[in-house]
Amino acid sequence: MKETFDVIIVGAGPAGISAACVLADAGIKTVVFERGEYPGAKNMSGGVLYGHDLSQILPDYAERKCPVERNIIESRLWYLSKDSGYSLGYRDSAFSGERKHNAFTVARARFDRWFAEQAVKKGALVVPATTVVDLLKENGHVAGVVTGRQDGEVRAKVTILADGVNSPLAAKTGCRAEPRPEHVALAVKEIIDLPPEVIEQRFGVAEGNGVTTELLGEITAGMDGVAAIYTNQASLSMSIGANLADFVSAKVKPYELIESFKQHPLLAPLIAGGQPREYLAHWLPEGGYDTIPQLYGDGYLIAGDSAMLFNALHREGNNLAMTSGKMAAEAAIEAIKRGDFSRKGLAGYGERLSASYVLKDMRKYRRFGRFLYGHTEIFKELPELASKAAREMLSVDGTPKKQKQQLIWREIRGKMGIWRLLRLAWRGWKSVK
Amino acid sequence: MKIEDKLFLDRFRVDAESHLKIIDSEKCRDCREQPCLYFCPANVYRLEGDRISVNYEGCLECGSCRIGCPELNIEWRFPRGGYGVSHKFG
User: Measured on CA atoms in the order B14, B16, B19, B24, is the torsion positive or negative?
Assistant: First the structure.
């Protein structure tokens, strides 16, 4: 391509398209390269998006017919042993009223495509089916990209890397080190079709509303992981994932893990009669704050999953991607105005991210990932112990309650020990406080 | 539901050339654990006799084999633009 641009964006996901919208709004000549057949073709997340961050980019997203699956009014958390489990949920009518679209589900293949169309309407150029294979460098300064096409060099003043967590490009060019297996989670996901009225009945919601359920415990076969069920308009998203290092050492097959997950007695009734429609796999950047790379350098910025921006505890990722993409764009605009595309000229990105919830939350939960990874009892001994305790206390069988308690404590002491349990609670608290 | 049936749900545009390559098959033969046979979510790596075959056609492009191989013995690049898996729902 002979044409030169002000800004090149690698990847048409939430980070890249957010950046493209902000840049196009400012009249900056912008191109987005996307390796998929269309934006969204390669993208996967649990499927929840947040209205707040989207409205910062597109305040009128509803009028623009954003493809929302269901508005989330309830969040559930389940802690499961092999055949039983605890359930905790919070439902609030505020989430269907004044806080509507606080969180909503999307089909990423549809949402990302729609989002990219909005960037195009604003004046950005989006080029799909084009893989960026290298960065153009001049005196150590990023000066554009090399695509897989013939005569594939394209030059720009600033390049924004928003190509996702799995980025051979970032690793090859040294913009971000290749993640270690323990710094990513491998998740698989199935879309299961069900009629809308069946979903509404099973989850107790009205048309257009939905529920998210996060699940942990023995379902991840002793590995540090989590699962989720999200309601879409006429389907359920079922995902399950675990630390990749755990997958490697445990020799668990992800497609068998999701099969036994679907057969769990608490879940099987929710998906009964459903038709599997799609099967996907993707990483989640779970390394936390300490794995965030240098966020900007001479001629480039890095945003979203590529920059390992992800809040595992609150399952937030898309919002961090959108906001970091927006801030990268704002910093690029400043740099272009000043004519300084060096690391110094792009420093506004770091300042914005540090002042925002993005890096503040990443710092707050800095130790959370290591806490989960280091405490396998959460996924091994504890679910069964917790279930036994509840089963005992809820069974009406003529045994005095005092005796039941003694039985439960004896069990805990034998399997885990009181100190280990207290240490677990203390360290868990410290990792998120 | 078997993995073959799961992959059958997906849409792939398969390139003539593999985007995944085992760098040195001797290393695989000496690899005791061969974890790729298990953790790959698309069952790309399968044992055939004493060698590991690479069934790249059903690759979901997660990248796990690239960093999960204990020998880092897999050359991994993205499929050419427009090729590989295309999510219909996502």
Answer: positive
Instruction: Give the DSSP letter of residue A181.
Output: G
| Mutate which: A10, A33, A37, vs B, most B CBs within 10 A | A37
Residue from the list A108, A180, A249 with its beta carbon closest to the beta carbon of B87: A108
**CA–CA min distance B72, chain A (Å):** 11
Q: Give CA angle at A209 (A205, A214), nearest 5°.
A: 85
Contacts of B89 in chain A (CB under 8 A): 107-110, 191, 235, 277-278
Tell me: the pLDDT tens digits for A230-287? Answer: 999 999 999 999 999 999 999 999 999 999 999 999 999 999 999 999 999 999 999 9
Cα-based distances in Å from A139 to A1, A136, A298, A342 = 22, 10, 10, 12
> How far are the Cα atoms of A67, A91, A414 from residue B56, in angstroms, in the given order?
32, 44, 48
| Bridging pattern class, strands A296-297 and A300-302 | antiparallel
Angle at A20 between CA A132 and CA A295, to 5 degrees: 65
Measured torsion, CA atoms of residues A359, A361, A366, A367, in degrees rounded to the nearest 10: 180
A22 phi and psi angles, rounded to 5 deg: -65, -40
Tell me which residue in A40, A168, A276 faces B76 most closely, judged by beta carbons.
Answer: A168
Put simply, whether A43 touches B (Cβ < 8 Å) is yes
Residue type, A116: A
Q: Is B67 on the interface with A (CB under 8 A)?
A: yes
Q: What is the ipTM of this complex?
A: 0.98
Determine the residue type at A177.
Answer: A
